[in-house]
Structure formats: C-alpha cells, structure tokens
Amino acid sequence: MIQTQPLQPGQVAFVGAGPGDPELLTLKALRALAQADVVIHDRLVSDAVLALSNPEAELLDAGKTGFGPAMKQDDINALIVTHARAGARVVRLKSGDPGVFGRLDEEIDALDARGIDWRIVPGITSATAAVAGLGQSMTRRGRNSGVRLMTGHDVQGYADHDWRALARPGEVAAIYMGKRAARFLQGRLMMHGADPATPVTLVENASRADERRIATTLAALPAVLAAEAVDGPAVILLGLAPRAAATLRLNRQEVS
Ligand SMILES: C[S@@+](CC[C@H](N)C(=O)[O-])C[C@H]1O[C@@H](n2cnc3c(N)ncnc32)[C@H](O)[C@@H]1O
C-alpha cells in the first residue's frame, strides 16, 4: 500500500475532515491527525472527528460563522505560521474538502511566502454526502451532464451566478451557505425562467446522526426555510428530490 511520508516537524497538512461522520474520513486524514502536534480546526468540524486527533495534540478552534469570520483570516494564517515555525506538525483541519469554499489559497499563500512546506489531504465535501443521503447521484445520464458547487454568498454579499444556465430543466446545483440567500436565489432563478415546481432538497447536518432532509420546490423554498428552524449547516440541492419522493412523483405523472 502506498503510504504518504509522515508529517514532519514544521510541516502543515490541510486536511479535509469530511461532513461530520468520522467514518467518512480518509486514511490519510486519520494518519495526519494521529501525527499532529497542533490541530487548528474550523467550527464545523465534528467532535467525533476531533476525537481522532493525537491525544497529546493541542486543539485550537479557528471557528468562523456563516457571515463574517469569528477569527480574522489573517489571524488564522498567522496562527498556522507561528506553530509551523515553532517546529510543530500542524494539521489545519477544514470541514468537508479543504478546497471547496475553504479559503485554502489564502492560507497556502501565507505559507509559501514564508517557505513553509505543506500538503493537501482531500475530504468528502458536504454536497456529495448530502446527495448520498437522498439516495441520488450528482450526475445522471440524460438528466444533467454537469453539476455546480455554488455559494449563496461571497465577499460582495449574495453571490451572482449564471442564472439563465441554472434555470434550465434538469440542472443540478449544490448551494453552500445558501440559507440566508434562499429568497434571492429563488427570485433570480424564477426571473430567468426556472420551473417553480423544480425539486429542491435542503440537507442539514449531512452525514451526522441528526441529518435532516427537507424536500420542497423552488416556489416554496423561502417559506419552507422560514417555517423550519434550520440551525445546523445545510446544503441546498437544486434539481434533486429524495429518491423515494422522485419515484412517487414520476408514478403520479404516469398515472395522470
Ligand atoms: C465555509 S463552507 C465549507 C464547505 C466545506 N469545505 C465542504 O467541502 O463541505 C460551510 C458550508 O458548508 C456546508 N456544510 C458544511 N458541513 C455540512 C454538513 N455536515 N451538512 C450540510 N452542509 C454542510 C454548509 O452550506 C455550510 O454553510
């Protein structure tokens, strides 16, 4: 079996913690966690994953909330640099995959600027875990030949996208950080011709014991979000319904 070189003193591993279920960690992630002297983690990393760290490791919370960081990005960069320069084996643990809406490049740039060695250990992103929970696939022959990973908001506010393309029948998109942007997203999509009956499923706490799936339509999305208290991290899956519901809908169409 190919095995990565152990993490060396002064090196940093950007590790994907996956969506929460510790069994979704990769073996590389597990090894890096076991070797770490310092684990600098995001707020969304589950306790069950953190518990797999080296028991001697120092665990540091660099948590951020959806809108605006709780700890400034520059401070997080400085924290990683300080520990690597002190000779620690540093794991920078990010929820899901570190390269998906994880501000990974900013942290890499900070390390490159100081000549600090780093590596990336990919993880399972929340969208794929959420889609798996629906019993669906991200892409399907004859339905969608591509899929988009989108953010509901960016540094400017609500994020702009190619709404015309997204409004086409059969499109599938996984929208991260989309709860607050739901009304905006719905408005833009319907303005560009999306079918109000387009299936939309919100998956909260994907892969965790308290995973919740709320199946709705584009037309009803903002009202459903307002009615349900969705406090945990959630992905909005545009164009996908849970498999059972999809089968039911198809059956109904065949009967009528
Ligand atoms: C800053 S992004 C980080 C994404 C992460 N790097 C990934 O690959 O999943 C945070 C967003 O990821 C999504 N997210 C993270 N964990 C999740 C989970 N377990 N279930 C559903 N959505 C999740 C939510 O949309 C949340 O607002």
Gyration radius from CA atoms, angstroms: 20 Å
Succession of helices and strands: EHEHEHEHEHEEEHEHEEHEH
CATH architecture of the largest domain: 2-Layer Sandwich
Beta-strand level of the residues, as a percent range?
Answer: 15-25%
**Share of helix, binned:** 25-40%
How would you write the strand order of the largest sheet?
Answer: 3-2-4-1-5
Under CATH at level 1, the class of the largest domain stands as Alpha Beta
> How widely separated are the two ends?
56 Å
Structural class: alpha/beta
From the spread of the alpha carbons, the general shape counts as elongated
CATH topology name of the largest domain, in short, is Methyltransferase, Cobalt-precorrin-4 Transmethylase, Domain 2
Number of domains: 2
Biggest β-sheet description: 5 strands, parallel
* Average predicted confidence as pLDDT: 92
Strand elements, count: 12
Fourth-level CATH superfamily of the largest domain? Tetrapyrrole methylase, C-terminal domain
Write the layout of secondary structure elements.
Elements lengths: L11 E5 L10 H9 L2 E4 L5 H4 L7 E4 L11 H13 L4 E5 L9 H10 L4 E4 L4 H8 L14 E4 L1 E2 L2 E2 L4 H4 L6 E4 L5 H10 L7 E6 L7 E6 L3 H7 L6 E5 L4 H13 L1
Parallel strand pairs: 1-4, 1-5, 2-3, 2-4, 6-9
Antiparallel strand pairs: 7-8, 9-12, 10-11, 10-12
The structure holds S-adenosylmethionine.
Detailed description of the structure:
This protein has 256 residues and is α/β, with parallel strands linked by helices. The chain folds into 2 domains: 12-121, Tetrapyrrole methylase, N-terminal domain (Cobalt-precorrin-4 Transmethylase, domain 1, 3-Layer(aba) Sandwich), CATH 3.40.1010.10; 126-254, Methyltransferase, Cobalt-precorrin-4 Transmethylase, Domain 2, CATH 3.30.950. The protein is 30% helix and 20% strand. The protein has helices spanning 27-35, 47-50, 73-85, 104-113, 126-133, 163-166, 182-191, 221-227, 243-255; strands at 12-16, 38-41, 58-61, 90-94, 118-121, 148-151, 153-154, 157-158, 173-176, 199-204, 212-217, 234-238. The strands form 3 sheets. It has a 5-stranded parallel beta sheet, sandwiched between helices. It has a 5-stranded mixed beta sheet with strand order 6-9-12-10-11, covered by helices on one side. The protein has a two-stranded antiparallel ribbon with strand order 7-8. α2 links the parallel β2 and β3 (58-61). α3 crosses α4 (104-113). The chain is elongated. The model is unreliable at 251-256 (pLDDT under 50). It binds S-adenosylmethionine (SAM). The site of S-adenosylmethionine has 24 residues, from α5 and β12.
